[in-house]
Amino acid sequence: MNLFTKNKIAKLCALTLVFSSQFALAHSFVIKNATVHTATKDGILKNATIVVKNGVISAINPRSYNETEVIDAEGKNVTPGLIGAINSLGLIEVNAVANTRDASEEKADITFDTSTAFNPKSTLIPYARKAGVTTNIVSPRGGKSMFRGQSFVVNLSGDFDSVISANNAVVMDLGAKSKGSRATDIQDLINTFEDAQEKLEEKAEEKAKAEKEKSDKKDSDEEVKEDKKDKKLKRDEVIINELLTGTKKLVVHAERATDLLVLIKLKQKFNLDLVLVGASDAVLIQDELAKAGIPIIMDAYSSLPTSFDTLNASLDSAAILMNAGIKIALYVGDAHKLDQLRYRAGSAIAYGVKPNEALAAITSNIADIFNLDTGKIAVGKKADLVMWSSDPFEISTKVEKLWIAGDETNTTTRQDLLRKRYTTNSDMPRAYIK
Question: Are 330 and 349 in contact (CB under 8 A)?
Fold first, then answer.
């Protein structure tokens, strides 16, 4: 093969890739005659039409559309894709097998980033997808430090590029300890923030002082010094500064009212973007939490105390806190049980949460808390959509179709394949089929 032929083939391949990419981006479709649960202030839209272009919702109930692929929902429910949160999906396969666990590390600290260990081919992902989950906020389990590490956001497409954003929040524990006192962690946290705040203030003063200098040369020298100081900052100091400037969220697992009150004070003092997880005692200080504007991620199944910190766990806590004006999101902390997310929401409905609020708690509220471009059926939002056979909160309801960023995604799981393998009639011995 001569050089001319090779170049020609290379150009043809390049053009093919370009056209293939454009075709993929140009994919569009319409869902019509759907009962659309928007998870927004628009509520439920009957006999509605959704237009999807290039992975994004481009129109809802337009007068006309040009798309040739039209899916008739026949009145079935369409919701945003559900969003899981604060679990180790993709970082753990089998709890009892140590070499399948990447969520924890004894030496883990605030810099612990597990996004590079995320396995998009985990068998747990299709299982969650089959239950309507399209996005997940993955959290490390940490080590000896009160800081678990940093969470990251993924879609459940199963693609190798499914990590949407890494290091989106710092995750930490605050509460009872098997050894030592929680007071040590509280004091260490306060000291850490105070020291970092003082350094930021000193840096701001130095910068203001440098700006007052009239000499261009001196200004230039000061800038060089500042650049060198910035480069010398340790990574953990950078992350603490991001927390203090509000550019990174602080997600704290805490249960007892006294711990929650300390966190409220820290939020107010350091202007933290704070999110609580668990918060069993939140019902005791609901007014303070509502006034502080702190969202809570909680487990709707939490009903019995598992420690002296969770004596106030109750099945009606979600309804009480929502009525108090607190933004509530529901979660499943065990990656192996993420398929139960909609059941947790259904349980919350049984104990006083309105159906539209329950849906928001596993879609739009999570999206709002973590600034995700999904979780709502609205123009401009990512087309993460689920079509259900019936009421999403009923156990017997199935996912009929699921789209992630506008691409219809398979919901077949390993369990489905095993069932087929072991129940299909064959002349060969049981399970020995192709």
Answer: no
